[in-house]
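The pair is set out directly below:
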Amino acid sequence: MILCGDIGGTKTLLGLAEQGRLVADRRYANADFPDFASLLASFLADTHTSPASLASGCLALAGPIADSGSSAHLTNLPWTIDAPDLAHRFGMPPPRLVNDFAAAAVGAVTAPASHLVTLQAGEPLPDSPRLVVGAGTGLGMAMVLPDHGAWRCVAGEGGHVAFAPADEQQAALWTFLRKRHGRVTWERVVSGPGLAAIQEFLSGDTLMPEHIAELAHTQVDGAAARALAIFLATYGAFAGDMALACLARGGVYLAGGIAGKLLDRLPDSGFLAAFNAKAEHAAIAARIPVHVATDPLLGLHGAMMLAQ
């Protein structure tokens, strides 16, 4: 039996896996518990699981992992998770601790076809790197490498690379953001806050990203629709640039909540055109498969794979 977890700032998903599949999963509100150990105790009780029956475990969490790999502090919650302490307290093997985007990345590249929507079939090379990017509150990026029948995840900070405008309008957006932030990174544009910033740049209105997406559906010629068009084009440009940087001929996978929520808009947007607009390397970009990962338990499945 394998313990797997996806621990965010507001909610936690915990699961049990056997023989490569989840056999139980539960969702908890973090605000209901004083610390993670209390939440884990509740999960074990809810699933009638003896800690002694656990052979291994992996907890993916939204925060930096200590260099030792044995502890982590959540970025948006005053919880510290210590693997040796959990092992001692519950009488189980110390769980592996990984960043939540690393787990989502492994979950994406191992997802079945039923949990993938293909935007570009490309010509995949099985032994080549995979790239996973995810726009949400921030902009995550990780490479996943085939490793003798397993997977090795290499985290990256591509979201903090400098934003490269592709036309005059994006150059004006860069100027708008530079006055506010100084250095303008891709995350300032390709993220939930980035979509809000694009809307403000175009109209002067300060709106929540969810509201912008709703307005874009109902007001096809309005500022929200134009903001969403810029957002999807820059998302595609970023994904294509990062795919070239690591020659991700195994495929590019879009994870994170925004891609799933905009799934109906992606095929007819400027995303793929910007992804493939790579001048002398356009032919390489066109051969890179592009998929959207739609599994609602992506992080949990990734943690399960990493625990094995």
Notes: The CA atoms of residues 177 and 301 lie 37 Å apart. The chain is about 35% helix and 25% strand. The chain has two domains: 2-94, 115-308.
